C-alpha cells in the first residue's frame, strides 16, 4: 500500500530538517507515535535505528523498528520499516522560492500476511491518509510556534 501527502511549510528546508531529525520530538507532531528512542550511538546518517511505540485508533498496538536508509540533508530522508510492518517512508523537502518548504511524505508499507495483510491495509489507507495530513499540519503548527531556531 502506498500513501502520500504534501504540505507547504512556512520555513526553510534546513529548519524543517532540523526539527524532523530531532527524533524524540516527532511525538510532538506525529499523531501515531507515542515514544521514539534512538537505538544507535550515532543520531545522524545512514544506519541510525529507532524504536517507535505506535498507536492505531488511539491504542498502542506495537513497537516498530525503523532504520535510516537514505540521508541527504536537507532534501531527502528514507526510513525502512523493519518488523511486522515492512516497507519505506520517505520525506522530501524542496524550497518554494518564498522562504518556505514543500514537504512530501510517502509511505509504502506491507504486512507479513499475504492476502489478509493487503486487505487490512486497504481498509486502513483512508485513515492513514488523514493521519499523515493531520500530522503534517501539527508539524506546521510546531514550526510556527518554535520559529527557525528550534
Describe the model.
This protein is an alpha+beta fold. Helix content is 27%, strand content 43%. It contains two helices and seven strands, in the order βαββββββα. A hairpin with a 5-residue loop joins strand 6 and strand 7 (101-111). It is globular, with a radius of gyration of 15 Å.
Write the layout of secondary structure elements.
Layout: E1 2-9, H1 13-20, E2 33-38, E3 49-56, E4 59-72, E5 76-82, E6 85-95, E7 101-111, H2 114-146
Antiparallel strand pairs: 1-7, 2-3, 3-4, 4-5, 5-6, 6-7
What are the main properties of this structure?
single chain; 150 residues; alpha+beta; seven-stranded antiparallel sheet; globular
Helix content: 25-40%
Q: What overall form do the CA principal axes indicate?
A: globular
Radius of gyration: 15 Å
Average pLDDT figure: 91
Q: What is the beta-strand fraction?
A: 35-45%
Record the strand order, biggest sheet: 1-7-6-5-4-3-2
Q: Would you count the extended β strands for me?
A: 7
* Separation of the first and last Cα atoms: 34 Å
Question: Stretches where pLDDT falls below 50 for ≥5 residues?
Answer: none
Order of helices and strands: EHEEEEEEH
Largest sheet: 7 strands, antiparallel
**Count of DSSP-assigned helices:** 2
Amino acid at each position: 500500500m502506498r500513501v502520500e501527502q504534501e504540505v507547504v511549510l512556512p520555513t526553510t528546508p534546513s529548519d524543517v530538517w532540523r526539527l524532523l531529525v530531532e527524533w524524540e520530538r516527532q511525538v510532538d507532531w506525529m499523531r501515531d507515535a507515542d515514544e521514539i528512542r534512538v537505538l544507535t550511538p550515532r543520531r545522524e546518517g545512514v544506519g541510525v535505528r529507532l524504536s517507535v511505540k505506535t498507536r492505531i485508533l488511539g491504542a498502542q498496538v506495537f513497537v516498530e523498528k525503523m532504520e535510516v536508509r537514505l540521508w541527504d540533508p536537507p532534501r531527502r530522508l528514507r526510513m525502512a520499516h523493519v518488523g511486522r510492518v515492512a516497507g519505506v517512508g520517505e520525506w522530501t523537502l524542496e524550497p518554494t522560492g518564498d522562504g518556505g518548504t514543500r514537504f512530501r511524505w510517502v509511505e509504502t508499507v506491507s504486512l507479513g500476511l499475504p492476502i489478509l495483510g493487503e486487505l487490512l491495509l486497504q481498509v486502513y489507507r483512508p485513515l492513514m491518509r488523514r493521519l499523515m495530513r493531520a500530522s503534517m499540519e501539527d508539524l506546521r503548527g510546531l514550526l510556527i510556534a518554535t520559529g527557525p531556531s528550534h
